[in-house]
């Protein structure tokens, strides 16, 4: 039997990070001490109250098929969360729960995109937006941001990118990979662009909302522009702020007809979300903000440390992230240089590969996020690992020669 994948998969580019992750594993298995700053995974444990609530739910027999959109206690907790954190009044028909923020995106794109539709994605971006859009035959229209602007998007660039085929504008702030956040004036300017383009929906991925620094607070587009409520889909989830990546619980708040269509996609895909994970998520959402505050302070200290290290490395630039848990240093001045082992660093992919092979630090090259030449370094690692990785990076750069 000859095996053939569907054409919608055949056109998907291979993820830029897979080869790198495999090589890091291979090096480790031969005893090499590889430090990985490649993962977008909090290095904290999930809240104890979430674990206990999930266990209790199992003992109490909360183990049957759930409603596809989510169980009522979780929908109610999410409604409380939107009021508390975003000053948004949501109703149950505007909410759905999914297997992670990623499945919310998948549901939304599957429910709305036809081949040749366009999705505007500011670059750099989290890899899944363009990849999922492409699975449905749609085109990702990349709108680059600039390091000089702190990677904040230019509303005029959005205006110029909108065509009659545009279905979605994707916003992800605090941003993965840059840590940029949007201020009220940025959101107001974007809302003005959207008011002039009534056919465009907005996907606002706010999964890093609680991880903001220097006393800054995340603002939701919906809070700033409530008149656009029938066009804004907010994506959020338990993964980042609650360190619950493996529980696979994400949620959405959006226009009721869109949520209904997304529920129908999900009904055919997963029949809803693990009941124990839902019970745990209720406990986490209602569990107070102290843990989040502690994580935010820890990430901020690590960010400060990384920025301090990076600014002393000649040829490396770095905008200060205002949120999330990554730094995104620029390496343009190092392009074309040669390593002691003779590798020529003509792209950020070549740089990341050489850094892994010769200095044993795993990172993700900016090419994976659509803006080069950069590296994404995750601060979800211990102080010791961050210090040692920075030392290795500094030494690696110091040894580079002109090609
Ligand atoms: C910006 C962004 N959105 C969504 C997700 C997906 O989160 P989840 O684990 O809830 O699917 C991630 C995960 O890395 C992310 O970085």
TrEMBL record:
GO BP: any one term: amino acid metabolic process
Keyword line: Aminotransferase, Pyridoxal phosphate, Transferase
SUPFAM superfamilies registered for this protein in UniProt: PLP-dependent transferases
Required cofactor(s): pyridoxal 5'-phosphate
Coiled coil keyword on record: no
Domain spans labelled Aminotransferase class I/classII large: 33-393
Domain of life: Bacteria
Catalysis: reaction(s): L-aspartate + 2-oxoglutarate = oxaloacetate + L-glutamate
Top EC category: transferase
Family matches, as Gene3D superfamilies: Aspartate Aminotransferase, domain 1, Type I PLP-dependent aspartate aminotransferase-like (Major domain)
GO molecular function, one term: L-aspartate:2-oxoglutarate aminotransferase activity
Enzyme Commission numbers on file: 2.6.1.-
Keyword presence, Transferase: yes
Alphabetized CDD domains for the sequence: AAT_like (cd00609)
Subunit structure: Homodimer.
Annotated PANTHER family: ASPARTATE AMINOTRANSFERASE
Homology family: Belongs to the class-I pyridoxal-phosphate-dependent aminotransferase family.
Name recorded for this polypeptide: Aminotransferase
Source organism: Swingsia samuiensis
């Amino acid at each position: 039997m000859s095996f053939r994948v569907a054409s919608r998969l055949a056109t998907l580019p291979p993820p830029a990070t897979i080869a790198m992750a495999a090589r890091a594993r291979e090096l480790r298995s031969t005893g090499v001490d590889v430090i990985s700053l490649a993962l977008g995974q909090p290095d904290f444990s999930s809240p104890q109250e979430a674990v206990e609530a999930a266990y209790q739910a199992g003992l109490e027999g909360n183990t049957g098929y759930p409603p596809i959109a989510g169980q009522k206690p979780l929908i109610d907790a999410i409604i409380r969360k939107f009021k508390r954190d975003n000053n948004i009044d949501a109703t149950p028909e505007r909410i759905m729960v999914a297997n992670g923020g990623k499945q919310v995106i998948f549901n939304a794109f599957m429910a709305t995109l036809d081949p040749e539709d366009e999705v505007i994605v500011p670059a750099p971006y989290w890899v899944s937006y363009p990849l999922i859009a492409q699975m449905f035959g749609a085109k990702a229209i990349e709108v680059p941001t600039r390091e000089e602007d702190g990677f904040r998007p230019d509303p005029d660039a959005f205006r110029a990118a909108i065509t009659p085929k545009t279905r979605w504008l994707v916003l992800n702030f605090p941003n993965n990979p840059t840590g940029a956040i949007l201020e009220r004036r940025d959101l107001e300017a974007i809302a003005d662009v959207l008011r002039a383009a009534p056919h465009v929906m907005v996907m606002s991925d706010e999964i890093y909302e609680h991880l903001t620094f220097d006393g800054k607070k995340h603002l939701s587009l919906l809070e700033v522009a409530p008149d656009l409520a029938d066009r804004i889909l907010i994506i959020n989830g338990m993964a980042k702020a609650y360190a619950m990546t493996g529980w696979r619980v994400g949620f959405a708040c959006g226009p009721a007809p869109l949520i209904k269509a997304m529920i129908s996609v999900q009904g055919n895909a997963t029949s809803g979300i693990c009941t124990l994970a839902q019970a745990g998520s209720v406990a986490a959402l209602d569990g107070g903000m102290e843990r989040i505050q502690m994580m935010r302070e820890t990430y901020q200290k690590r960010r400060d440390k990384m920025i301090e290290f990076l600014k002393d490395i000649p040829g490396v630039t770095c905008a200060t992230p205002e949120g999330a848990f990554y730094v995104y240093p620029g390496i343009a001045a190092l392009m074309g240089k040669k390593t002691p082992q003779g590798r020529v660093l003509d792209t950020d992919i070549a740089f990341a590969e050489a850094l892994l092979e010769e200095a044993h630090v795993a990172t993700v090259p900016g090419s994976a996020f659509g803006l080069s030449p950069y590296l994404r370094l995750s601060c979800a690692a211990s102080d010791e690992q961050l210090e040692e990785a920075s030392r290795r990076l500094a030494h690696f750069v110091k040894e580079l020669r002109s090609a």
